[in-house]
C-alpha cells in the first residue's frame, strides 16, 4: 500500500469540490493515515477557479501540495485540469470531468475555449482519464452526485478499497441522499475500469 | 470503525479547532465580525453549550465587548481578520494597559497571498507595537491547544494575548484531539479604577506595568513548551513559526529547527544557544522579516529575507528552492489559458445596480468591501476605487469636496448592508453634516454574503438564526438627516437605471437602498424561481444581455456562413444563450432583451 500521496482537486466554485475532497480525506483517515487538506474560502469561491489540496501519509506537515508532486489530479472541468499542469509529474493520474464551463472572457466572446487542451497533458506522458460525470449522475437519478461519481473514478488510483468510501458516505451524507451517492460512487468507479 | 469515535479524535479545520479550544478553555463571552479567513470560528463556537457568542457590527465593537466580559471576570474572546484588527486597534492598545480580570484572547487571521483581502499586512507587528504576547500555531491540532495556553498566559501576565493564524492554518483540516472544558469563572462586579480607568494619571502607572509584564513574558518564553528545539543534523539550522514550520519540515526533514509557538516576545537565550549550535542560521517566515529583524537586533547574525520571498504564501517548494536551489528539479510550465476570476453569481441582485452604473461613464464609483467589489470586473467594470470597510462613503465625500461644482452628478458610493452597519453609517453622518452631494447606494441583500451569509443588525436574526431586531435602513438614514431616500428593486433594471440617473444628478445628499435578497440565501435557493431560457430564433445578436456579465449567459460567435445556416442575417456576429442549469431566475436579461428572445421557462 502506498505510504503517502498528494491528491489535488480543481474546478469551478459551486461544483462540489469540497465535499469530494472531504469524502476522500475521511476514507484515507479510516485507512489509518494522517491527512491534511487545504482549501480557500471567501471571494475565491465566487465562480472562480477553486482547488483543494489533500495530502496523506504517516505524518503530514505541509497542507499544500508542491508544484510537480500531485500524484492524482481530480479536475471537475477541462480547463481546470489543464490549469494545474505545473502541479503534475510524468506519473500523475488525471481524472477529468468532460464538462466545459466557459470562463468570463470566453462567455463574452473575447477569447476562445481552447480545443483539445487535454492533449497538452497526454503529450507529456501523463495518464488522463476523461469521464462524463454528469452522464453518470443522470443515470443514477441525481445530478448533484456528479462530484461523488468523480470520487468513484478517482478511487481506482488509491490503495484504500471502495468500502472505506461507502462507509464514509454512510456516515457523512444525509440519509435521504446516501443510497444515490453510493450508486454514483460505484458507477464512477466502474467507469475507469471500463475505459 | 468510524474515525470520529477513535480516541476522541476529530477531523477539524483550524477555525473549528479554535472554536473547540475556546470552549475547552472555558470562554464564556465571545464577539467578532466576519472576515476571511476567521469567520468560521464564531459560527462554530456558538454551537457549544455555556458560551455566549455574537456577531458585532464591527471589530472595534467586538473587541470592546470582550474587554467588558473580561472586566466582569470571565474568559473572553474576540475574533477578526487581519484588517479587522486595524479597526479594533484603538481598544487593543489601551487594553494592553488595563489588562483584565478574566483571560482575554484576541484572534487575528492573516491572509498572505490576499486570497480574499485588500492587503497583506503582517499582524505580528501589532504584538510588537501594542506590547502584547502573541502565539502562532502551525496546524489545527496546535491551534486548539494554544487557545488554552493563550488564556493561561493572559491571566498569569494580566494582559490580552493575541493568537495569529493564517489561511493555511485557519482553512486547513487536520486531526485534532478533543479534551474537556475547564471549570469556568463566574462573573462578578468589581471596581478596579486604577486598572480600568485610563486617565493619564492611572495610565502612567499602568504603562510601567506593561513593561514589567513584558519582561516576565520574555522570561516565560524561554521555558514555554510551545517554543522548542528539534534536534537534527547538517550545517543549517532553521528558526520558524506558524505554517512556515511545516514547509521547513518537509523541505529539510533532517535539519535542526527552533520552532516558535510564541512569536512575541522572543526567547533570547534559547535563540542565542540555538544560533551557536548551527553553522548557518536561517529564519523562514512568510511576509515581513519580523523574527529576523528582532533576532538581528539581539546581535545574532542570520539569513532570512535575502533568501525567502517577502510577499505571498510560501510552500515547501519555495523554501527548498530559496535555500538550496540545486536540489529542485524542473516542473512543467503553466499553459497559456483564459483566466477564471471570481464573478458575481447568476441572479445576483448587485448586478442590476452595477449594470446601471456601467452605463454612466462619467460617474466615479467609490466602492467598498464585499461580493459587490466584483462589480469592478469586465464587462461591468463599474468600480473606480476600493480601500477598506466603509471607505466608499467617505472617499466619495472627500472627492466631492475636492471637486466642488465640477463633481456634481459624477460621484457615487456603493456599499453593502453589513458594510454600512460596520462603518458606513458614520461616514454618511459626515456626508450630511458637512454637506456633500455624493449619492450613497446601500446594497441591501439581507445578509453578509461574501463571508458565507452571516447575520447582521439589519438582517433580523442573530448569530444563531433566532429573531432579532432589524434596523430600519430608511429610518436610520432619515434620522442621520439624509433628505432623499429611494428604495429600488435592482432586478427591475430599467427602473433602477432611471433612479440612479435622478439621484446622482441631485445636488442634495441622497441614499438609494437597493433591496433584494442574496440569491444564495437558503430560503432563496429553496424557493427557486422559474429559470429563463433563450428563444434562439429571435436572438438578433445585439449583446444587450451579454453585457450583464451573468455567468449563465454565454456568447457564441458566428461566421457569416454559420449565421446564414442558422437562419440569421448574414451580418449577425453571433448569438447569446442561457445555460438553464445555472440560471437563478432574476429576469434582468429578459428585461433588457428587446427581441423577445428571452422568456421564463414556464411560459414556453
Describe the secondary-structure layout.
The complex is a heterodimer of chains A (195) and B (604).
Chain A: E1 5-12, H1 17-30, E2 34-39, E3 49-57, E4 70-75, H2 78-82, E5 88-97, H3 104-107, H4 119-122, E6 127-131, H5 133-140, H6 146-155, H7 162-172, H8 175-194
Chain B: E1 9-13, H1 14-24, E2 29-32, H2 40-45, E3 52-55, H3 59-71, E4 76-81, H4 82-87, H5 89-98, E5 104-110, H6 124-130, E6 134-135, H7 140-157, E7 161-166, H8 167-170, E8 172-177, H9 193-196, H10 200-221, E9 228-230, E10 236-241, H11 242-251, E11 257-260, E12 262-264, H12 268-277, E13 280-284, H13 290-297, H14 316-323, H15 350-358, E14 364-366, H16 391-403, E15 411-416, H17 417-433, E16 439-444, H18 473-480, E17 484-488, H19 493-505, E18 510-515, H20 522-526, E19 532-534, E20 553-557, H21 560-565, E21 574-578, H22 588-592, E22 598-600
Parallel strand pairs in B: 2-3, 2-4, 4-5, 5-7, 6-7, 10-11, 10-13, 14-15, 15-16, 16-18, 17-18
Antiparallel strand pairs in B: 1-8, 6-12, 9-11, 19-22, 20-21
Could you walk me through the main structural features you see in this protein, from its secondary elements to its overall organization?
The complex is a heterodimer of chains A (195) and B (604). Chain A is built from 8 helices and 6 strands; from the N terminus they run E-H-E-E-E-H-E-H-H-E-H-H-H-H. Chain A has one domain: Pyruvate-ferredoxin oxidoreductase, PFOR, domain III (Pyruvate-ferredoxin Oxidoreductase, domain 3, 3-Layer(aba) Sandwich). By secondary structure, chain A is α/β, with parallel strands linked by helices. Chain A has a 6-stranded mixed sheet with strand order 2-3-1-4-5-6. In chain A, helix 1 (17-30) crosses helix 7 (162-172). With 604 residues, chain B is of the alpha/beta class. Chain B has 4 domains: 3-220, Thiamin diphosphate (ThDP)-binding fold, Pyr/PP domains (Rossmann fold, 3-Layer(aba) Sandwich); 228-327, Rossmann fold, CATH 3.40.50; 350-525, Rossmann fold (3-Layer(aba) Sandwich), CATH 3.40.50.970; 528-603, Alpha-Beta Plaits, CATH 3.30.70.3270. A 7-stranded mixed sheet of chain B has the order 3-2-4-5-7-6-12, with helices on both faces. Chain B has a 5-stranded parallel sheet with strand order 14-15-16-18-17, with helices on both faces. Chain B has a 4-stranded mixed sheet with strand order 9-11-10-13. In chain B, helix 11 links the parallel strand 10 (236-241) and strand 11 (257-260). The longest helix of chain B is centred in the middle third of the chain and has 22 residues, at 200-221. Chain B is globular, with a radius of gyration of 27 Å. The two termini of chain B are 52 Å apart. The interface between A and B is large, with 55 and 64 residues.
Amino acid at each position: 500500500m502506498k505510504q503517502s500521496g498528494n491528491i489535488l482537486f480543481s474546478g469551478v466554485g459551486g461544483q462540489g469540490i469540497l465535499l469530494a475532497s472531504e469524502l476522500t480525506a475521511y476514507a484515507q483517515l479510516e485507512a489509518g493515515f494522517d491527512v491534511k487538506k487545504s482549501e480557500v474560502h471567501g471571494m475565491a469561491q465566487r465562480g472562480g477557479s477553486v482547488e483543494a489540496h489533500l495530502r496523506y501519509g504517516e505524518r503530514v506537515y505541509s497542507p499544500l501540495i508542491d508544484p510537480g508532486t500531485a500524484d492524482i489530479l481530480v479536475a471537475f472541468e477541462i480547463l481546470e485540469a489543464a490549469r494545474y499542469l505545473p502541479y503534475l509529474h510524468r506519473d500523475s493520474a488525471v481524472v477529468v470531468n468532460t464538462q466545459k464551463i466557459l470562463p468570463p472572457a470566453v462567455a463574452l466572446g473575447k477569447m476562445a475555449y481552447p480545443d483539445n487542451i487535454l492533449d497538452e497533458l497526454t503529450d507529456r506522458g501523463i495518464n488522463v482519464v476523461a469521464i462524463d460525470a454528469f452522464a453518470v449522475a443522470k443515470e443514477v437519478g441525481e445530478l448533484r452526485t456528479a462530484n461523488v461519481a468523480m470520487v468513484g473514478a478517482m478511487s481506482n488510483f488509491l490503495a484504500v478499497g471502495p468500502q472505506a468510501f461507502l462507509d464514509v458516505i454512510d456516515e457523512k451524507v444525509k440519509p435521504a441522499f446516501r443510497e444515490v451517492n453510493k450508486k454514483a460512487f460505484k458507477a464512477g468507479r466502474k467507469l475507469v475500469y471500463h475505459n | 470503525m468510524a474515525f470520529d469515535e477513535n480516541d476522541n479524535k476529530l477531523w477539524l479545520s483550524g477555525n473549528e479547532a479554535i472554536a473547540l479550544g475556546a470552549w475547552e478553555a472555558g470562554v464564556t463571552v465571545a464577539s467578532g465580525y466576519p472576515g476571511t479567513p476567521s469567520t468560521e470560528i464564531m459560527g462554530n463556537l456558538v454551537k457549544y453549550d455555556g458560551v455566549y457568542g455574537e456577531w458585532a457590527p464591527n471589530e472595534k465593537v467586538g473587541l470592546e465587548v470582550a474587554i467588558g466580559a473580561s472586566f466582569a471576570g470571565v474568559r473572553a474572546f474576540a475574533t477578526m481578520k487581519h484588517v479587522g484588527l486595524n479597526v479594533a486597534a484603538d481598544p487593543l492598545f489601551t487594553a494592553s494597559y488595563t489588562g483584565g480580570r478574566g483571560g482575554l484572547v484576541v484572534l487575528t487571521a492573516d491572509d498572505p497571498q490576499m486570497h480574499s483581502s485588500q492587503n497583506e499586512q503582517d499582524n505580528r507587528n501589532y504584538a510588537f507595537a501594542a506590547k502584547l504576547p502573541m502565539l502562532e500555531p502551525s496546524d489545527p491540532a496546535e491551534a486548539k491547544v494554544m487557545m488554552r495556553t493563550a488564556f493561561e498566559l493572559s491571566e498569569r501576565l494580566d494582559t490580552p494575548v493575541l493568537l495569529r493564524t493564517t489561511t493555511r492554518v485557519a482553512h486547513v483540516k487536520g486531526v485534532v484531539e478533543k479534551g474537556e472544558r475547564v471549570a469556568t469563572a463566574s462573573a462578578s462586579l468589581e471596581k478596579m479604577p486604577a486598572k480600568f480607568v485610563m486617565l493619564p494619571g492611572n495610565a502612567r502607572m499602568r504603562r510601567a506595568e506593561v513593561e514589567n509584564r513584558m519582561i516576565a513574558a520574555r522570561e516565560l518564553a524561554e521555558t514555554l513548551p510551545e517554543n522548542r528545539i528539534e534536534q537534527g543534523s547538517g550545517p543549517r539550522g532553521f528558526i520558524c513559526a506558524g505554517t512556515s514550520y511545516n514547509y521547513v519540515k518537509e523541505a529539510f526533514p533532517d535539519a535542526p529547527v527552533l520552532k516558535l509557538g510564541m512569536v512575541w516576545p522572543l526567547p533570547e537565550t534559547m535563540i542565542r544557544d540555538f544560533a551557536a549550535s548551527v553553522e548557518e542560521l536561517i529564519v523562514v517566515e512568510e511576509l515581513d522579516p519580523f523574527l529576523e529583524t528582532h533576532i538581528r537586533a539581539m546581535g545574532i547574525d542570520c539569513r532570512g529575507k535575502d533568501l525567502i520571498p517577502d510577499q505571498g504564501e510560501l510552500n515547501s517548494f519555495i523554501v527548498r528552492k530559496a535555500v538550496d536551489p540545486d536540489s529542485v528539479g524542473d516542473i512543467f510550465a503553466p499553459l497559456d489559458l483564459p483566466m477564471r476570476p471570481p464573478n458575481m453569481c447568476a441572479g445576483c441582485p448587485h448586478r442590476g445596480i452595477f449594470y446601471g452604473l456601467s452605463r454612466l461613464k462619467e460617474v466615479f464609483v467609490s466602492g467598498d468591501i464585499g461580493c459587490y467589489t466584483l462589480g469592478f470586473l469586465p464587462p461591468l467594470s463599474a468600480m473606480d476605487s476600493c480601500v477598506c470597510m466603509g471607505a466608499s462613503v467617505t472617499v466619495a465625500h472627500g472627492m466631492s469636496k475636492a471637486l466642488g461644482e465640477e463633481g456634481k452628478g459624477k460621484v457615487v458610493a456603493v456599499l453593502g448592508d453589513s458594510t454600512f452597519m460596520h462603518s458606513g453609517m458614520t461616514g454618511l453622518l459626515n456626508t450630511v453634516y458637512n454637506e456633500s452631494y455624493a449619492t450613497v447606494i446601500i446594497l441591501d441583500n439581507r445578509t453578509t454574503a461574501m463571508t458565507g451569509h452571516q447575520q447582521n443588525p439589519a438582517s433580523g436574526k442573530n448569530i444563531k438564526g433566532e429573531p432579532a431586531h432589524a434596523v430600519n435602513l430608511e429610518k436610520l438614514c432619515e434620522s442621520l438627516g439624509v433628505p432623499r431616500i429611494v428604495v429600488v428593486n435592482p432586478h427591475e433594471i430599467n427602473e433602477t437605471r432611471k433612479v440612479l440617473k435622478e439621484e446622482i444628478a441631485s445636488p442634495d445628499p441622497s441614499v438609494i437602498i437597493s433591496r433584494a435578497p442574496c440569491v444564495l440565501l437558503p430560503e432563496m435557493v429553496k424557493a427557486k424561481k422559474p429559470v429563463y431560457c433563450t428563444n434562439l430564433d429571435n436572438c438578433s445578436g445585439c449583446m444587450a444581455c451579454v453585457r450583464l456579465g451573468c455567468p449563465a449567459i454565454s456568447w457564441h460567435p458566428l461566421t457569416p456562413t454559420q449565421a446564414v445556416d442558422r437562419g440569421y442575417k448574414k451580418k449577425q456576429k453571433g448569438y447569446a444563450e442561457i445555460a438553464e442549469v445555472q440560471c437563478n431566475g432574476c429576469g434582468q436579461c429578459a428585461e433588457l432583451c428587446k427581441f423577445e428572445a428571452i422568456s421564463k421557462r414556464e411560459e414556453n
